[in-house]
Design goal:
alpha/beta, Amidase signature (AS) enzymes, two-stranded antiparallel ribbon, 13 strands, 37% helix, AS_sf, Amidase_CS
């Protein structure tokens, strides 16, 4: 096995045991990038020289007994909406900032403090405003979309071109590409991780979080980003509002790999919304994964999704005007520099009446209350992350058996939006493959600041199914 094939946890253990050096790992991952990047297009900017210097520094620190933790010496990618000192933040757009930021974003600073090695900036759908990331190709089938908007991060992790990566999620932008490329993606609770230094798409829906190859790896990254803000391994016993309360420890103390016991845990299975207009192969894969959770001892309970008919309107009613407000000045001065799809959405946001935006805010408040009540009945909700596997590049719509025609972007955001609207934590982990041989995602959602339970369930499935694998082969 080559070092780039190791999971984060595996690489960290090898480094700690003295069996692998950060320099060897970083060189292996850089070599992998050199071998696959031309075919995948995951990176906007590669910082190979600074990565090598960081790896040497990490190696010296560890040799001197100054080991900072499991991320020390681990190479990662950073979505190009997230500032890192000295590297330009372009947002994969011609409108992007012309000068590199002088300081790190809050999350990049925390990863630097943990000793992680920054490889470079990964592609995003322009300003995070899309679900395809057209510059990047799917790691498993280059003729298909990578998913977005954190497509570059997901593809880099899937292909072994990063041991882990960070993305952002406003309507599914971590979970969608994670599902389409067969990796793990975690959108934490709104407010758990700081957004300082992250280019905003929609201030009230934006989240930042990790993409990894395993649930264990996601927990390690989240712990480094959030820190222990409660008793280790504890979960919230009540559901606080998403903007207040003290987060519990995000999940560093997961059960050991051989444990997959979910006895006493209540998992809600939606009766509506999440299994409507879903590809049969995806549904079969997700339901098989849910059956695996039952076999681990979890109690499955049918539930109704609150206010389901208003979810999509609320998501767009919040996101579109907020995005337009964020881009107001550049949209007026240099509209021609935006891609056509993003420019049209930004122009449409200027036409949304203030009353519609306020109604969306009110709907969001009601949804949060209703989901809080829902989580008094169950501990976790399990559902598909996406309604279909990765579509072919250039496909703009999908026709469902009932005759409904849906835009690809609407389809991919539909099942992820509830967690953005309510701010609850949501994890996507790979299941499948579907009937075409492509992966899909199982989405697990929990109470605000109860990442520990969501990660516990994901780890149990991963352990019981034996589904953890190495990087996908990248065809010529």
């Amino acid at each position: 096995m080559q070092p780039y094939e190791l999971t984060l946890a595996g690489a960290a253990a090898a480094i700690r045991a003295g069996e692998l050096s950060p320099v060897e790992l970083t060189e292996s991952v850089l070599g992998r990038i050199g071998a696959v990047e031309d075919r995948l297009g995951a990176y906007v900017t590669l910082a190979a020289d600074s990565a090598r210097r960081s790896a040497v520094r990490a190696e010296r620190e560890i040799a001197a007994g100054r080991h900072r933790g499991p991320l020390h010496g681990i190479p990662f990618g950073l979505k190009d909406l997230i500032d890192a000192s000295g590297l330009p933040t372009t947002a994969s757009s011609r409108v992007g900032a012309p000068h590199p930021p002088a300081t790190d974003s809050a999350v990049a600073a925390r990863l630097s403090a943990a000793g992680a090695v920054l490889l470079g900036k990964t592609h995003t759908h322009e300003f995070g405003y899309g679900l395809t990331t057209p510059q990047t190709r799917n790691a498993r089938d280059h003729a298909r979309i990578a998913g977005g908007s954190s497509g570059g991060s997901a593809v880099a992790v899937a292909a072994g071109a990063a041991t882990f990566a960070l993305g952002t999620d406003t309507g599914g932008s971590i979970r969608v590409p994670a599902a389409l490329n067969g990796v793990v993606g975690l959108k934490p609770t709104y407010g758990l991780l700081p957004l300082h230094g992250v280019t905003s798409l929609s201030w009230s829906l934006d989240h930042v979080g990790p993409l990894t190859r395993t649930v264990e790896d996601a927990a390690l990254v989240l712990t480094a980003l959030a820190g222990h803000q409660g008793p280790p391994g504890t979960a919230a016993t009540t559901a606080p509002t998403v903007r207040s309360g003290s987060p519990a420890a995000p999940g560093a103390d997961l059960p050991p790999p051989e444990s997959a016991d979910l006895t006493g845990l209540r998992i809600g299975i939606p009766r509506q919304h999440y299994f409507e207009r879903v590809d049969p192969g995806v549904e079969a894969s997700v339901r098989a994964a849910i059956d695996q959770l039952r076999a681990c001892g979890a109690e499955l309970m049918d539930i109704d999704i609150p206010m389901a008919r208003y979810l999509q309107a609320t998501q767009w009613g919040l996101m579109v005007p907020e995005a337009t407000a964020a881009h107001e000045q550049t949209l007026r001065s240099v509209p021609e520099l935006y891609g056509e799809d993003v420019r049209v959405l930004l122009e449409a946001g200027a036409l949304v009446p203030a009353g519609d935006y306020l109604r969306a805010q009110r709907a969001r408040a009601l949804m949060r209350e209703a989901w809080t009540e829902l989580f008094q009945q169950v501990d976790v909700v399990a559902a598909p992350s996406v309604p279909m596997a990765a579509v072919r590049a250039g496909q703009e719509s999908v026709e469902w058996p009932d005759g409904t025609v849906e835009a690809v972007s609407d389809a991919y955001v539909r099942l992820c939006a509830p967690a953005n609207i309510t701010g609850i934590p949501a994890l996507s982990l790979p299941v499948g493959p579907d009937g075409t041989g492509l992966p899909a995602g199982l989405q697990l959602m929990g109470r605000p600041f109860d990442e520990a339970t969501v990660l516990r369930v994901g780890r149990a499935y991963e352990t019981a199914s034996g589904s953890v694998g190495g990087p996908v082969p990248v065809a010529a």
